[in-house]
């Protein structure tokens, strides 16, 4: 029986991969389904939501998932309705400066973890939190 998942931060690459994969049983798809169904506790911030939307609306990504802008916004509205909103303010530096908002979000909730496919973040987690792959998250918590 899986453990109760800690509050998670779902990186943009996981959410977008869940939208574009053809394999409904893939870890990224299972995570996205759990987010939309409210089966996991996950954290959001304005920066993360903005990144989700910008990436989902990139022409190349949009072509892969086939969603209109209004359909994208509908999915993001559902994500927001099931997530826990945080306004992180502490300065944090991630290995990739573009991901520092993820470190700040991790810092905002003790015991939270980041779910990502980004190898740099997986190999260089912050000292104060865990970073796991989608496969590990699904195996241990879903």
Structure description:
The chain is mostly helical. It has a single domain, classed as 3-Layer(aba) Sandwich (Rossmann fold). It contains eight helices and five strands, in the order E-H-H-E-H-H-H-E-H-E-H-E-H. It has helices spanning 12-20, 27-37, 46-56, 59-65, 69-82, 100-108, 119-123, 134-141, and strands spanning 8-10, 43-44, 84-85, 113-115, 130-132. The strands form two sheets. The chain has a three-stranded parallel beta sheet with strand order 1-4-5. Helix 1 packs across helix 2, helix 2 crosses helix 8 and helix 3 runs antiparallel to helix 5 (69-82). The chain is globular. The termini are close together.
List keywords for this structure.
single chain, 142 residues, mainly alpha, Rossmann fold, three-stranded parallel β-sheet, two-stranded parallel ribbon, 5 strands, 52% helix, globular
Structural class: mainly alpha
Please count the helical segments: 8
Widest beta sheet: strand line-up:
1-4-5
Mean pLDDT across every amino acid position: 94
Order of helices and strands: EHHEHHHEHEHEH
Rg (CA only): 14 Å
Count of β-strands: 5
Residue share in β-strands:
5-15%
Oligomer: single chain
Number of domains: 1
CATH top level class name: Alpha Beta
CATH architectural name: 3-Layer(aba) Sandwich
């Amino acid at each position: 029986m899986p453990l109760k998942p800690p509050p998670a931060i779902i990186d943009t690459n996981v959410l977008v991969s869940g939208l574009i994969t053809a394999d409904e049983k893939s870890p990224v798809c299972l995570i996205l389904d759990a987010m939309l169904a409210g089966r996991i506790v996950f954290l959001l911030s304005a920066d993360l939501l903005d990144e989700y939307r910008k990436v989902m609306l990139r022409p190349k990504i949009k072509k892969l998932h086939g969603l209109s802008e209004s359909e994208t916004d509908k999915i993001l509205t559902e994500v927001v309705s099931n997530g826990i909103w945080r306004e992180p303010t502490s300065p944090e530096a991630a290995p990739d400066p573009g991901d520092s908002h993820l470190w700040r979000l991790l810092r905002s909730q003790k015991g939270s973890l980041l779910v990502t496919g980004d190898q740099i973040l997986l190999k260089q987690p912050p000292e104060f939190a865990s970073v796991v792959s989608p496969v590990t998250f699904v195996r241990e918590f879903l």
